[in-house]
Design brief:
The structure is a single chain. The protein has five helices and five strands; from the N terminus they run βαβαββαααβ. By secondary structure, it is an alpha/beta fold. The protein has a domain of 77 residues: Alpha-Beta Complex (Ribosomal Protein L13p, Chain: A), CATH 3.90.1180. The strands form two sheets. The chain has a three-stranded parallel beta sheet. A two-stranded antiparallel ribbon has the order 3-4. It is globular, with a radius of gyration of 15 Å. The mean pLDDT is 95.
Length: 117
Protein backbone atom coordinates (compact mmCIF):
# COMPACT_ATOMS: atom_id res chain seq x y z
CA UNK A 1 0.00 0.00 0.00
CA UNK A 2 1.45 3.35 -1.01
CA UNK A 3 1.20 6.39 1.24
CA UNK A 4 0.65 9.87 -0.13
CA UNK A 5 1.41 12.73 2.27
CA UNK A 6 0.14 16.29 2.10
CA UNK A 7 1.08 19.33 4.17
CA UNK A 8 -1.98 21.53 4.66
CA UNK A 9 -0.18 24.44 6.28
CA UNK A 10 -1.33 27.60 4.49
CA UNK A 11 -3.11 25.70 1.69
CA UNK A 12 -6.58 26.67 0.42
CA UNK A 13 -9.31 24.30 1.64
CA UNK A 14 -11.03 23.43 -1.65
CA UNK A 15 -7.89 23.03 -3.73
CA UNK A 16 -6.28 20.76 -1.14
CA UNK A 17 -9.48 18.71 -0.75
CA UNK A 18 -9.56 18.15 -4.52
CA UNK A 19 -5.98 16.86 -4.55
CA UNK A 20 -6.70 14.56 -1.59
CA UNK A 21 -9.90 13.16 -3.17
CA UNK A 22 -8.10 12.42 -6.45
CA UNK A 23 -5.28 10.67 -4.60
CA UNK A 24 -7.71 8.65 -2.43
CA UNK A 25 -9.62 7.37 -5.46
CA UNK A 26 -6.33 6.26 -6.98
CA UNK A 27 -6.62 8.35 -10.12
CA UNK A 28 -2.87 9.04 -10.01
CA UNK A 29 -2.01 5.33 -10.21
CA UNK A 30 -1.70 3.45 -13.51
CA UNK A 31 -4.07 0.67 -12.40
CA UNK A 32 -7.06 2.95 -11.65
CA UNK A 33 -10.55 1.46 -11.86
CA UNK A 34 -13.69 3.21 -10.70
CA UNK A 35 -15.22 0.09 -9.17
CA UNK A 36 -12.16 -1.02 -7.17
CA UNK A 37 -10.36 0.28 -4.12
CA UNK A 38 -6.89 1.57 -4.83
CA UNK A 39 -3.84 0.74 -2.73
CA UNK A 40 -3.40 4.34 -1.62
CA UNK A 41 -3.43 5.73 1.90
CA UNK A 42 -3.43 9.50 2.41
CA UNK A 43 -1.92 11.30 5.40
CA UNK A 44 -2.47 15.04 5.85
CA UNK A 45 -0.19 16.93 8.24
CA UNK A 46 -1.25 20.23 9.88
CA UNK A 47 -4.91 19.75 8.87
CA UNK A 48 -5.98 22.49 11.27
CA UNK A 49 -3.92 25.16 9.49
CA UNK A 50 -5.90 25.11 6.24
CA UNK A 51 -7.15 28.52 5.09
CA UNK A 52 -10.14 29.83 3.15
CA UNK A 53 -10.17 32.77 0.77
CA UNK A 54 -12.35 35.84 0.74
CA UNK A 55 -15.08 36.21 3.36
CA UNK A 56 -15.81 32.49 3.70
CA UNK A 57 -14.58 32.48 7.30
CA UNK A 58 -17.60 34.61 8.26
CA UNK A 59 -20.20 33.70 5.61
CA UNK A 60 -19.70 29.93 5.22
CA UNK A 61 -22.05 27.72 7.27
CA UNK A 62 -22.27 23.99 7.93
CA UNK A 63 -25.81 22.62 8.25
CA UNK A 64 -27.05 19.54 10.12
CA UNK A 65 -30.62 18.23 10.12
CA UNK A 66 -31.91 15.84 12.78
CA UNK A 67 -34.94 14.73 10.75
CA UNK A 68 -37.45 16.30 13.12
CA UNK A 69 -39.43 19.52 12.57
CA UNK A 70 -37.30 22.46 13.61
CA UNK A 71 -34.24 20.24 13.75
CA UNK A 72 -32.03 22.24 11.40
CA UNK A 73 -28.91 23.57 13.08
CA UNK A 74 -26.12 25.56 11.53
CA UNK A 75 -22.62 26.48 12.61
CA UNK A 76 -20.30 29.01 11.07
CA UNK A 77 -16.88 28.16 9.71
CA UNK A 78 -15.16 29.77 12.70
CA UNK A 79 -17.28 27.78 15.19
CA UNK A 80 -16.49 24.47 13.48
CA UNK A 81 -12.79 25.35 13.27
CA UNK A 82 -12.72 26.17 16.99
CA UNK A 83 -14.50 22.96 18.06
CA UNK A 84 -13.04 20.47 15.55
CA UNK A 85 -10.13 21.99 13.62
CA UNK A 86 -9.85 19.13 11.10
CA UNK A 87 -13.55 18.58 10.38
CA UNK A 88 -13.80 21.13 7.55
CA UNK A 89 -11.18 19.33 5.50
CA UNK A 90 -12.72 15.93 6.23
CA UNK A 91 -16.18 17.11 5.11
CA UNK A 92 -14.79 18.74 1.98
CA UNK A 93 -12.98 15.54 0.95
CA UNK A 94 -15.98 13.34 1.75
CA UNK A 95 -18.30 15.46 -0.37
CA UNK A 96 -15.87 15.24 -3.33
CA UNK A 97 -15.77 11.43 -3.29
CA UNK A 98 -18.34 9.36 -5.22
CA UNK A 99 -21.56 8.66 -3.34
CA UNK A 100 -21.43 4.85 -3.41
CA UNK A 101 -20.33 1.90 -1.27
CA UNK A 102 -16.67 2.81 -1.68
CA UNK A 103 -17.01 6.22 -0.03
CA UNK A 104 -16.82 4.94 3.55
CA UNK A 105 -13.93 2.62 2.71
CA UNK A 106 -12.04 5.46 1.06
CA UNK A 107 -12.61 7.75 4.05
CA UNK A 108 -11.08 5.13 6.36
CA UNK A 109 -7.87 5.48 4.37
CA UNK A 110 -7.66 9.20 5.12
CA UNK A 111 -5.67 10.26 8.18
CA UNK A 112 -5.78 13.88 9.34
CA UNK A 113 -3.11 15.00 11.78
CA UNK A 114 -3.58 18.18 13.78
CA UNK A 115 -0.50 20.12 14.83
CA UNK A 116 0.06 20.17 18.57
CA UNK A 117 1.04 23.84 18.77
Amino acid sequence: MTTVEFDAQGKVLGRLATQIAVALMGKTTPDFRRDRLSDVKVVVHHADQVVVTGTKSTTKFYYKFSGYPGGLSKKSFTQVKAEHPDRMLKLAVKRMLPKNKLQAKLMKRLTLEVSST
